[in-house]
Amino acid sequence: MKHFFALIAFLLIIQTTHAQLFKKEKVTYDANQGRGSTDNNLLRWGYYLGFNNYDFNFDYYEDLRDIYVKRSPGFNVGLIGNLRVNSFIDLRLEPGLCITTRELYYSQEYFEGVDVNQSDLIREVKSTYIHIPLLVKISAKRINNFKPFIVGGFSTALNLSSNEKNPEDNSNGQFRTTKNSIFYELGFGIDLYLYNFKFTPSIRGIFGINDELVRDKDPDSPWTSNIVSMKTRGVFVNFTFQ
After folding, report:
1. Is 16 a residue whose pLDDT tops 60?
2. R_g over Cα of the chain
3. In sequence order, what are the residues at sequence separation of 6 or more whose Cβ sits closer than 8 angstroms to the Cβ of residue 119?
């Protein structure tokens, strides 16, 4: 049901956008009505909604079969603070909440000589991130009601679902990840100027810098001993309203 309402809302946005964007009239800022573009303001505010698809990138000690990561679409929501540097460069702070789930599937190769159940080969990693990126937005020249841009920067995230301090590990079914993560981010998008607001679809990749795996107590643990590092990577598709 929630996907149905999301689809309806998206179609309404597209219909309104199409009706306003492809007129020859260029949307300009109306100081009395507070509509249209506010690009010349030093500070601007907004919010975003979107989707994410998180993955893990593994590096290994031995050449065993890769751990398969089953990804599930997640949800993003957050706020935007925009500082204008000049007509083409902006600094953006985009604190938000990102929710995602990943499942890890191990090969039997990791458990040679060990009796295991099917449940031992699967680990679920649920993550609820407070995600705080600081980004530089570099825009092209505006053409009528369109302005493409690229964006990049660094971010940090606090994982509210982290079980880093849990004394139990994989021997008790607990796959542990760190609480804090650092990323770099790269993406692109396009500002669409409407009469009542500026609508911005964008896509952005995030790439983990730090190792997020908490090792098991047993140095020969089949779940963690062969992993050199485990870093998050993912894709955000966000829809911004300003």
Report:
1. no
2. 22
3. 173
CA 162 from chain centre, in angstroms, equals 17
- Does residue 108 sit in helix, strand or coil? helix
Read off the amino acid at residue 213. Answer: L
pLDDT at 101: 96
Give Cα separations from 192 to 6, 48, 76, 240 (angstroms): 20, 14, 21, 10
pLDDT of residue 103: 96
CA separation (Å) from 128 to 110, 118, 145, 179, 241? 29, 27, 36, 10, 23
Helix, strand, coil fractions of the chain, as percent rounded to 5 = 15, 50, 35
- 20 phi and psi angles, rounded to 5 deg: -95, -35
| Sequence letter at residue 222 | P
Give SS3 for 116. Answer: coil
**177 contacts 188 by C-beta, under 8 angstroms:** no
Q: Going from the N-terminus, what domains does the chain have, and what CATH number goes with each?
A: 27-241 (2.40.160.20)
Q: Does position 120 have pLDDT exceeding 80, yes or no?
A: yes
pLDDT at position 132 is 97
